[in-house]
Each structure stands twice: as structure tokens, then as C-alpha cells.
Amino acid sequence: MSRPQLALNLFWRTFALLALLLTGGVLAWQQTFKALEAEPRALEAAQQLAGLVNLSRAALANTDAINRVAVISSIARSEMVKVRVAEGHDRWQPYDMNPFAKELAAELRGRLGPDTVVASSVNGETGLWVRFAVDQDAYWLQTSASPLTVTSFNNWWWIAISLAATALGSALIARLINQPLRELSIAAGRIREGEYDSRLDERTLTSEIREVNMGFNRMARELAKMEEDRTVMLAGISHDLRTPLARLRLEVEMSVSDEQARQFMVQDIDQLDAIINKFMDYARPSELQLQPVPLAELVEREAQGFRDPTQIRIQIRLPSELKVWADETELGRVLLNLFENARRYGHGPGEPALVEVGHTQNGPWVLLQVRDHGPGVPPDKLARLTTPFFRGDAARTAATGAGLGLAIVEKSVQRLGGQLELGNAEGGGLLTVIRLQRAA
What we know:
By secondary structure, the chain is of the alpha+beta class.
């Protein structure tokens, strides 16, 4: 079995795109608010800080050198502002390390003079430091930098709430957008399984979805009518053909004296009757009743009709306790067609067909494998084996049959909710793999 390609669910794709768009919008607005807030905050902070510097400068300028120590000590009692004498060996780090700090530093220099130094730390002590001069002396004014910074939000949990709301809103919008498509997909699956009475809501408010639903419902009604007409037509053809065939067989057995000729004519009539049965099997929409079916028992029962060692040999390797969800009649028809196909084509000249029936398990699925040891099928024709009336090679055109065996198998497997895959086995022969759901 080939591995299925990775496919992104339409709901998750829509959700991801919406979430990405809204998250980008939230972050963009956050950056916009931050930029709009930075300049006014810088101007306001610069005005306040310049006022503190001018006040400290005025207090120090109006006192003599002896009393300045007392003024500095008095200012130091404040928890928010401190003043200290600037030394020549002071080590300081520049303050303008981000857009807000640059705005603040530029505004302070504009108000206090171009020689003003704004630092983020002095001698390893962090804070907002401003150096100013009084007469021939230089001083540092220190204040806390935290009230003068700009952050995205005062609390990061606001960002978390915004992102959570974005994800929830995206999921809700994606669900509303994809719900009509999901309903359409489910209805199309029912149509594929032969439930032509599936209908979609034609009163939805979205005009495009309403038109699609109306078109789908019209298609479903037409398909139901075509299926009904086809069933009636095939039933009539079957009845009309079998009546003269029965009379012809009776006349052949009574009037033809040559035993060999009579046997050949009877075989031709039986072949026509078998072809009619194939047509009916392919067209008949029988009702299914899915239930746990013992797989080994069903395979053994269907193989009993082919226990002719001169034509076919069937080896079954299935555990007796293995069960699958299936309709017993429908799955039996599948096995019957596979064995018949192997009996006709799955062997070499003059040899009986050897068929091996096994299985593997893949999670909740059972992979039923039916392999013959014939010549196989050219790779370019494998995909067409289930096409009605198609035969795998030119040599089979002279074979008896309607060319519907594998087409019936594929249709029946799909109606059972399974999957069919055909391929050439290693070492030769056709390998048929039927994927069915395992029953507990």
C-alpha cells in the first residue's frame, strides 16, 4: 500500500492564516501605540527631569561652598532624587540606547545645554543620571529610570489575553467558513456510496453556498433517476435475454445429435448467462448490513467452490479469530470475483493457478492480501484494471467473461468503506490488497 500524501485540513489552513493575520495585527498595533506613546512620554519626562535639575542647580548656586554639602545631604534624604559631586574618574554608560531614551536625552540637552551628560549608570550604580555644572563644579543628579521607560504593556498578560482571543476567534471564523464545505464533502461521500437521497440546505443566507447546494441537489436527483432507470433497464434486459436463452438451451439438448457440438453450444449459453449475471452484479445497488464477519471462515467458504486442483489451488493463512466490519454477501462477492480472476489469468500455460490469501494489520485496519503467481499486469495498465470491460493484455481479449470482475470488486469494496489497491507482487503475479476496518 502506498503511503498517503500529507494533506493540510482546510479548517486548520484557514485557522492558521487567520491566526497569523490577526496576531500580526495585534503586534503591529502594539508597536504603533508604543511609537505614539514614546514621544509624548519623552517630552513629559524631560520637562520633569529638567525641572529637578534646574531646581537643584538653583539651590546649589545660591549657597556657598560650605553650605552646599548640607544642601546635598538634604536632597539625598529624598527617595526619588539624589545629588552627588561628579569626580573626574567617574565611569558612566550612555543612556540613549533605545528610541525613547534618545528622545529623552535630546530633549534634556535642548533644555539644559549641549554639555549635559545623560547616563544609565555611574560607577556601576544604575539609574537615570544627569550631569550638570554649577560655577566650576560638576554634579550628578540621580533618579530612578523605571517610571520613565516605555513598555509594550504594563502587564504581559494583556498580550497573552489578546493572543488567546485571536486564536479563539480564528478557530470560530474558520469553522463558520468551512462548515458548508464540510457538509458538501459529507454529502458527496454519501453520493459516492450510492445514497442519492442526500440533500443540502437550500435556504442558507450565503448566496454562493446556496447556489452550490441547489446545483448539488439537482445533480443528486438526476443521478438517482439515472440509477433507477439503469436498474429497471438492466432488469428488463436480463429478463428478456434469459427467456430465449433458456429455450435455446432446451432446443440444443433435444435436437443436436453431435455430443461435442451440443456440449460447446451449452457452454456458450452458460457463458452468456454468466455475463448477464456480471452485468447485474455491477449495476445492482444491494442494501448493505455491516457487521463483524469472521474473515477466515468467509474466505474458506468462498474458496470451496474452487477446490479443483487441476485449475486452481488456494492457500489461506488467516487467524480464525480475525473479524472485520463488512456485509457478508458483498464481501463474498468480492472474494468470488478475485478467485475467478486468478483462475482465468493467474497462472502459466498448462499450470493450475496458485492463490495465496494472507493479511497484515495496520492500527484499526486489516489489509487482506490475495496474490496469484501468474504473469502479472504491465505497470502502465494497472490503473485501468478496475475500468469496466477492460482487460489487462491482448491475450485476455479471447478469454471468457465480461471484463467486469475487478470493476465489481472495486465498487463493492468502496461500498464496504474500504480501499482497493492492485499491484504486481515481488517475484511475479498480481497482488490485490483490500483495506477493511477491523472489528473488535
